[in-house]
Amino acid sequence: MVWLSRSFFYGKVLDGHVMKISLIIPFYDEYENVAYVLDEVRSVVADAGLDCEIIAVDDGSRDGTKEALERYAQRMGFLKVLSFPENRGKDAALFAGLACAQGEVIVMMDGDGQNDFHDAVEMLPELKHVDAVFGSREERHDPPGKLIVSSIAFFFRRLVLGDDVRDTGCGLKVMKRHTLQSLPPMRGIHRFIPVVFKLAGHSYKVMPVHHRLRAHGRSKFSIMRLYFVSTIIDLIFIWWYKANYIRMNIGEAGHERG
Questions:
Q1: What pLDDT digit, counting tens, does each position of 198-245 carry?
Q2: CA dihedral in degrees (54, 56, 57, 59; nearest 10)?
Q3: Which residues partner with 242 through β-bridges?
Q4: What are the DSSP calls for 203-249, one per residue?
Q5: Whole-model pTM?
């Protein structure tokens, strides 16, 4: 695989119908945003000439999101729809998408319409230099409570884990496929991907991305849902994971066979 070739990212299909980019989008009760998100993605894919498959994962929605995705898939050949019978969380949805992704490049984005897929196109060429690129929302359009919780979470991630990425909650992430073997399939891992990648020796870069107001629907965040309890548990686990991580920097020596 020649990562330095720009045509890798913008070229047509090579060697048959092998997908080069897999875009994974979790949806949870986002019926009104399905067409909004997928229409934009389809337009960008066509304009940029991307060789891309789209994997939409319905995370147990109850508002008709699954049916909307299935109808859309009938007229969008490169869209694959997965669904859970009940809500299992963002990370379960992402891992379900990763399990069937065919691309050598993985792109993740949210299904609420606040991410801009044009930003992903700008992030892709950076993979010539690093293993992953993480979006950082410079002007966030979120409720004040969510912004406060995010700031507190970053403070503790930096204090406990040495995490230097402020906005790990940004859904827009781009990475090379081989990095995925470093991700443990656990709840909340999307907030700790930079920490896990750094442990594994994967390089990454942070890029500013757009964050839009919601066009439809409402945020699933509620300060009354006590997110901080599960976040603290996840933080403790990742601290333990980091403290016990085995770094596989192996030197090899031996005799040539005669």
A1: 999 999 999 999 988 887 877 766 555 556 677 788 999 999 999 998
A2: 160
A3: none
A4: -EEEEEE--PPPSSS-----GGG-HHHHHHHHHHHHHHHHHT-----
A5: 0.84
pLDDT in tens, 26-66: 999 999 999 999 999 999 999 988 999 999 999 999 999 99
C-alpha–C-alpha distance, residues 123 and 134, integer Å: 8
Instruction: Take residue 77 and report the two structure tokens written for it.
Output: 């050949």
Q: Residue 8 and residue 164: Cα distance in Å, rounded?
A: 30
DSSP single-letter state for residue 202:
-
Which ranges constitute the DSSP H helices of the chain? 7-10, 34-48, 65-73, 90-100, 117-123, 144-161, 193-200, 227-243
Q: Which CATH number fits domain 7-143+163-218: 3.30.360.10, 3.90.550.10, 3.40.50.300, 3.40.50.2000?
A: 3.90.550.10
